Amino acid sequence: MKAVRNIKRFSHPSRVTDKNRKSKYEVKGFTLVELMIVLVIFSAIMGATYGVLNMGQTSFKTGDVQIVVQQEARKAMDKIVTELREAGSVNLSAEYPFTVWGNKIKYTVVNSQLQRTIQGQSPTILANDIGNIRFSLSGGNVIYITLTTQRNTVFGHTLRAKLTSQLTLRN
User: pTM of this prediction?
Assistant: First the structure.
């Protein structure tokens, strides 16, 4: 009897009614228009995200170069000021304008490097990425120093830093 009951549960294919069939408009899924709209929205979001990340990377690299430029300026200025405070005489028109502890010294910029030269010795490099250095004397014992540094960024921009210092000679 069990076998007979199982047979009665299944209906013959010819007896399937229209209620069990789905029309072509009832099929679930996305249309091409819906997919295109999603693709446009996703592309806009990804483009905006790329723009923000690219701007952040550019800013980071530029900031890094700016830090290096400022550090070079400070490093050079600190060395010069420390040494020139001990200068015994200053004659800015001489080839070696500063005399410190009996040594005649000059500071020059060669190939973007600040060089300190003691008369009769080889120059030593104090700092890199230096554009220019200027000294001026006021009142016989106050020296004004202007130091300009510059460096090119990865993106072709030139970053500059200008540092000015004033010192009074001790000797």
Answer: 0.65
